[in-house]
Amino acid sequence: MSKESVGDVILPGLSYPPSTVEDTENKILYVEFEYEDRRNPNNYSRTKKWVITLTASAFTGITAAAISSYSISTTSMVQELHCTELQVTLGLGIYAVGFGVVPLVTSSFSEEVGRRPVYIFSSVMFTLTQVMLALAPNIEVVIVGRALGGIFGSSGATLVGGSIADIWKPEERGLPMSIFAFASSFSIGLGSVIGGLIESSPHLGWRWVQWIHVIVSCLFVVLLIVVMRETRSSIILTEIARSKRKVTGESRHKCRAEINKESLGSLIKTACSRPLYFLLTEPLVQSFSVWCGFTWGVVYCLLESVTPMFVTVYGFDIRQTGFVYATLSVGACIGFLANIYQDKLYRMYYTRKQQEARLYAACVAALCLPVGMLIFAWTASPKIHWIAPIIGLTVFMSGVMVIFQVAFLYLADCYNTYASSAQAGQTLFRNVMALVFPLFTTQMFATLSYKWGLTLFAILAFVMAPTPFVFFFYGSKIRARSIASRRILAADAAEASRALRPGLEKV
To answer: What's the whole-model pTM score?
Structure first.
């Protein structure tokens, strides 16, 4: 390639469209990955991809465990800090708000500085918030610490889906995404088991629950620094271009991400406004947001109510109720296996059903939610063995596991380049529901009783059960009327046209 002309470089698997950009004097020399370049995250070895996937998923697990371990350890917290149940419940819900709001900004920072620095910064700050909780002198500090924990925990945990998309091809993402979703769901149950064991000890209590989190988080920070690698290709190319300019003295060496680069403020503005636009205008995003928001709100209600329910009905102590929450982990395992089978169905029927091939398991899971809730509601009685409501919880959590992964992958398939915005809108609504639901749980169960309160949730779950069926049969027609979908189709057509344009160099 001569310096007097521009060679447009097309690389298989990369989304950068070929174009010619001129500066004031000379044409720009684009820096692109070579064919099968090992620096390209798409070409990382499978071992490296799995190390990155498992490490990132571990962060999700740690932040998820902090949800349930806090919930089960509130008894000693109330006694020591002389606070109300409503105040400690606020600490539970406000943690979720960070997971809904902060990713709107985090995605912009990851575009600016890369994913690895955000992971490291988030994990360090999350660890410090756990120290803050362990040393908290009053409930106000606990609530602030939980809010900060949600902010920094979400900053890293919500990048995991993006990291998986960076390094795995679409047809390969099923298992990595299943592990990501599994880490979150399984750890909610695991956190309660460990928290219950610590809380039941008269010499430990809620502060030691937080200290255990500090120890685990510190070990994870070390692991993250050692094994995590950058997965965002634009950041890697920018570094290569910067190094090339330094070595050659040629300022014309640039990657495409550096051309017409938006400011960080502009990126944040887009990242905050576009998810709200999708949430308010896109029927697909709205439907899955309401469905997932309701489901996640019920999960938080269960975290708040299972302990007093089993104490009241079966006379369980804190240690025993901690093991009850293990059913959430068992349900996550069942859901994980269901998601693996769903991935097989997706590959089998994609050519016929397209994006809707993601929804086979979701149709079954939609029925698991109300059925599991009804079993839990109507068998929780001193006259019925405690294993019966535990079976109901397991069925319910299996459905939750499937729904969350399907929602993530289905939105990613449908919105393509706008997937992050669609998912951010859904995540925002879902976590706001996680804040709201626990605030009325105690009063609702006190008024309706556990049986009728949970039955009300089951009825609502039945009302929402048709959601995946509607999209399974009519999803393509609904997407055809979507403004965003039409833009995606137009962009794909334009890119295909450019790829067929003659006179482009390939290397």
So the answer is: 0.76
